[in-house]
Automatic annotation (TrEMBL):
<protein>
    <submittedName>
        <fullName>Bile acid:sodium symporter</fullName>
    </submittedName>
</protein>
<feature type="transmembrane region" description="Helical">
    <location>
        <begin position="6"/>
        <end position="24"/>
    </location>
</feature>
<keyword id="KW-0472">Membrane</keyword>
<feature type="transmembrane region" description="Helical">
    <location>
        <begin position="71"/>
        <end position="90"/>
    </location>
</feature>
<feature type="transmembrane region" description="Helical">
    <location>
        <begin position="192"/>
        <end position="216"/>
    </location>
</feature>
<feature type="transmembrane region" description="Helical">
    <location>
        <begin position="166"/>
        <end position="186"/>
    </location>
</feature>
<feature type="transmembrane region" description="Helical">
    <location>
        <begin position="102"/>
        <end position="123"/>
    </location>
</feature>
<feature type="transmembrane region" description="Helical">
    <location>
        <begin position="45"/>
        <end position="65"/>
    </location>
</feature>
<dbReference type="Pfam" id="PF01758">
    <property type="entry name" value="SBF"/>
</dbReference>
<feature type="transmembrane region" description="Helical">
    <location>
        <begin position="255"/>
        <end position="275"/>
    </location>
</feature>
<keyword id="KW-1133">Transmembrane helix</keyword>
<dbReference type="InterPro" id="IPR038770">
    <property type="entry name" value="Na+/solute_symporter_sf"/>
</dbReference>
<feature type="transmembrane region" description="Helical">
    <location>
        <begin position="135"/>
        <end position="154"/>
    </location>
</feature>
<keyword id="KW-0812">Transmembrane</keyword>
<dbReference type="InterPro" id="IPR002657">
    <property type="entry name" value="BilAc:Na_symport/Acr3"/>
</dbReference>
<dbReference type="GO" id="GO:0016020">
    <property type="term" value="C:membrane"/>
</dbReference>
Length: 290
């Protein structure tokens, strides 16, 4: 197994830890209630499964991007993921539970949305691109539903232990994300830089920004909903993307563009989280002053 194949696996492990840590902080009954919030789930589906793929498709059609690199970008755009945790989730509580409910509903939708979207977009790629519903369902179950279920089960049966354990599991997840970023830059930095000249980085930045902005706007006026939807739309599932790539492509540029998308998405979503945290803190201070 070479570095390009190993890195998505490391990414999956890191995100599994982060997702499990959120589950440890959540309240199962509130999670189920959030999954039944039809209005919020529909907004999430719009931001995650429609806005991001459409923007990726448009920007990749405009810029003179290599077809294999374009394939990697669009594949990431149609690979939704339960996102990186909000900074405020370190405290747990109702916001965490609502976010988990939303994310579970959205990732379940990926089981049907990903194969259907690829079927519609297959004409854009050199050769037919497809993936089975069963393959996506297996990936979603292992990398998202299982860690969520484990976290929620522990939270329900041993809430005190879950509360104490969650920060350590989360720290391990973020350490793994940091190590992943270093590994990508060390092993594939030169090859990834070779993709940037034709507008690849611009296309990725525009796609991620569109997801963050769409989620943020659709979540208004509730800041917690804005955070949750922005993270859902701004982050992608590297495991699903790698599964599609390995089933359909041999050209290394496809996987390299997936890695560049992954790294850029991490940087931009962390930047969004920092901005939102500071913005909300300043708003609280302003309210206290008045």
């Amino acid at each position: 197994m070479d570095a390009k194949e190993l890195m998505p696996i490391v990414a999956q492990g890191a995100l599994c830890l982060i997702i499990a840590s959120i589950g440890l902080q959540a309240q199962p009954r509130v999670v189920l209630a959030a999954m039944r919030n039809t209005k919020l789930v529909l907004k999430g589906l719009l931001a995650v499964n429609i806005v991001v793929p459409v923007i990726a498709l448009i920007i990749c059609s405009i810029l003179p991007i290599n077809p294999f690199v374009r394939a990697g970008i669009v594949i990431m755009a149609v690979s939704p993921m339960a996102p990186l945790v909000q900074m405020k989730m370190w405290k747990g509580g109702l916001d965490t539970s609502h976010a988990i409910g939303l994310y579970v509903a959205l990732i379940l939708s990926a089981i049907l949305f990903v194969p259907a979207t690829l079927a519609l977009l297959s004409v854009l790629y050199p050769g037919e691109v497809s993936i089975s519903v069963e393959a996506v369902a297996k990936m979603v179950a292992i990398t998202t539903l299982l860690p969520v279920a484990v976290g929620l089960a522990v939270s329900n049966w041993a809430p005190g232990f879950a509360r104490r354990t969650a920060p350590f599991v989360m720290i391990l997840g973020f350490i793994a994300v940091g190590l992943l970023a270093v590994l990508i830059l060390y092993k594939e930095g030169g090859a990834i830089l070779g993709l940037i000249g034709d507008g690849t980085l611009l296309a990725i930045v525009v796609t991620v920004a569109a997801g963050l902005l769409a989620g943020h706007w659709l979540g208004r006026p509730n800041p917690a909903n804005s955070d949750a939807l922005a993270m859902a739309a701004g982050t992608r599932h590297p495991g699903i993307a790698a599964l599609i790539v390995h089933a359909n492509f041999n050209d290394p540029r496809v996987m390299l563009s997936v890695l560049l998308f992954l790294l850029t998405g991490i940087v931009m979503t962390v930047g969004y989280l920092v901005w939102q945290t500071r913005r909300q803190r300043n708003g609280e201070h302003g309210s206290a002053a008045t």
